Amino acid sequence: MQWLMDYFGRIPSSHRSLILVGGIMFFWLLEEALPLFHFKYQKWKHAGVNLFFTFTTILVNFPLAFILVQSSNWAVENHFGILYLIHDWPLWSQAVTGLLLLDLIGAWAAHWIQHKVKFLWRFHIVHHADRFVDTTTANRHHPGESLIRFIFTTLAILITGAPMWLVFLYQSLSVILSQFNHANIVLPAWLNAGLSLLFVTPNMHHIHHHYVQPYTDSNYGNIFSVWDHLLGTFKKLDSQKIVYGLDTHLKAEENNRISNLLQIPFQKYRSPTEENFKKQ
Question: CB-based contacts of 171: which residues, under 8 Å, 6+ apart?
Fold first, then answer.
């Protein structure tokens, strides 16, 4: 356990970049070998749009990173947060508890509230409007949403009192699991059945990207699936019945052009169509 603390406590920026780029490359190749859907699209052009938003996410988070560091250092120095209350537990159990809570507050809760608050949903539409969900979709977030997620991550750090080594471990797992569960692959039923009891799998998260409710409002998890199971937001759907995108933004010029995607949060709000609800 000590080596994990030492490594993530001093993880170089180059290693964090390698996790991001290496993950995309690995799952990109895996999609070619074991695709769920044989999309008829220009994969490189599609990736270009999503990588643009990956870059904007980095631009938003990089100058604000010092806030995360200061928040963590303050919590640790002042014995603030849930982890301080269980400081006499074995280190491994503190780490697992911390990861679970960081995922609950920083990812699940942030995701859930973006679906429930119309103003926040406007920014999240950019992520859901992707009609060809693959591993690059994982990082397709409007700059406004990147800021919203940053705020929730900071809140999660303060509530848990997580030290920076645990924050970096959480962020690394979050990047890899998000790329994994968005990848255009499907796991064998037997493997998914066991793995999805604890972790979010592609089979599970793809349902969240189905183009109509109530599926859009389900399976919010990023790393751990336990929160959806416990909080009643878990749903199942045959992978072959999934249609990606949103019923309000099905036109290519709306969901695949960077200029329009950046403007979506400020355009007139569109309610989900009753016709598409009836099809379900």
Answer: 16
Q: Is residue 2 part of a domain?
A: no
Whether pTM exceeds 0.85? yes
- Burial environment of residue 106 by CB neighbours within 10 A (0 to 12, 13 to 18, 19 or more): buried
As given in the structure block, the two tokens for residue 48 are: 């270009």
State the pLDDT confidence band at 273, using cuts at 50, 70 and 90: low
Token pair recorded at residue 198: 């604890």
- Structurally, the chain folds into a number of domains equal to 1
6 in a domain, yes or no? no
Residue showing tokens 């950019």: 126
190: domain range? 13-278
Could you tell me if 146 and 138 are in contact, meaning their C-beta atoms sit under 8 angstroms apart? no
Q: How far is CA 22 from the centre of its chain?
A: 17
